[in-house]
Specification:
This protein is α/β, with parallel strands linked by helices. It has one domain: Phosphotransferase system, mannose-type IIA component (Rossmann fold, 3-Layer(aba) Sandwich), CATH 3.40.50.510. The protein has a 4-stranded parallel beta sheet, with helices on both faces. α1 links the parallel β1 and β2. α1 crosses α4 and α2 packs parallel to α3. The radius of gyration is 16 Å and the shape is globular. It starts with 8 loop residues before the first strand and ends in a 6-residue tail after the last helix.
């Protein structure tokens, strides 16, 4: 399906409410975001339950899906890895607000491969040591 007609879905999976609040912040800046879905690993929740919840949503998902998770090798990213293997969805760990904003702003206009690169660049570029800048030093 043409990406202009059906842009990639954005799926956010995190420990606790981190992902939900990240999406709330994104929508505070950009307005309502369509086709973005959040899942939270709650205290005491079995990984199998999280997997079941995400599987139910992704059953009817388009071919291009970007899954954001908070911590590499944590339960949310381990669950997302299953979809990376099975359906070749893109999974990006270490999500932050600039990444979600970039994903929403670009997913209607760029090729999927370019979108992934832009999301990762936005995340990397947003990590800045302000103190070093105020003292005239930049660190890469």
């Amino acid at each position: 399906m043409d990406q202009k007609i059906m842009p990639p879905w954005l799926v956010v999976i995190s420990h606790g409410n981190f992902g939900k609040e990240l999406v709330n912040s994104c929508e505070m800046i950009l307005g309502k975001v369509d086709n973005i879905y959040c899942f939270s690993l709650e205290p005491g929740m079995a990984p199998e339950q999280l997997l079941e919840n995400v599987t139910e949503l992704l059953h009817d998902a388009p071919q291009n899906v970007v899954i954001f998770t908070d911590i590499y090798a944590g339960t949310p990213s381990n669950v997302a890895t299953i979809f990376a293997k099975q359906k070749r969805y893109q999974v990006i760990c270490g999500m932050n607000l600039p990444m979600l904003i970039e994903a929403e702003m670009q997913r209607y206009d760029v090729a999927f491969e370019d979108l992934i690169a832009k999301i990762i660049a936005a995340g990397n570029d947003s990590i800045i040591n302000i103190t070093s800048l105020t003292h005239g030093r930049e660190y890469e």
